[in-house]
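Following up on my earlier thread - several people asked me to post the actual chain instead of describing it. Fair enough. Here it is, all 184 residues.
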Amino acid sequence: MDINNNRQPLDFGRTMRLFRQEKGYTLEKAQQITGVAKSTLSKIENNQISPSFETLQSIAIGLNIYLPQLFERLMDKPKPFARLDITRAPNPDHALAQQISNKKLMPTVLKITNRSVREFTEEVKEKDRGDAFLYVLKGSIVLFSEFYEPIELHKGDSIYYDCSMGQNLLSSGDEDAEVLWVTA
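Reply from S.P.:
Thanks for posting it. Predicted structure:
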């Protein structure tokens, strides 16, 4: 019984082309890094010729992949799904990862200007969020929370906590503080 009778035959040329394109290489660039002529690479990708073992080695080394990868049936594998969002500096609004919807993490850079508890209007409770990670980027702060004594944190300090409890921050230094606050 042939267990592979429902599978498409290996399309070696297409597999090689996908690896080359995934790296962003043109045929000319691939020629430079593999030492294999551009016309030969094109013929291989179009399944017009079968390459020698030495040519395969040169291609694998040039593309920085393992030789057996050239024989995988790439089309049989699900394409991975990955999200990516880059926030470039300067970013005066401190808005991070704005292009991704339905994020599990909500990163925010906060500027802490309060210097006195009298400036607090109300405790912050993130009922829809579970955990929080706070990292002090600049200055020093005091974290006030519903269930713990106030905690002072300085530049480089971090804290992980349950953000469903009441909380608030104030700057404890002479300058405004900045923190990276990530909620999940």
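Strands lie at 106-112, 131-138, 140-145, 151-154, 158-162, 167-171, 177-183. That should answer part of your original question.
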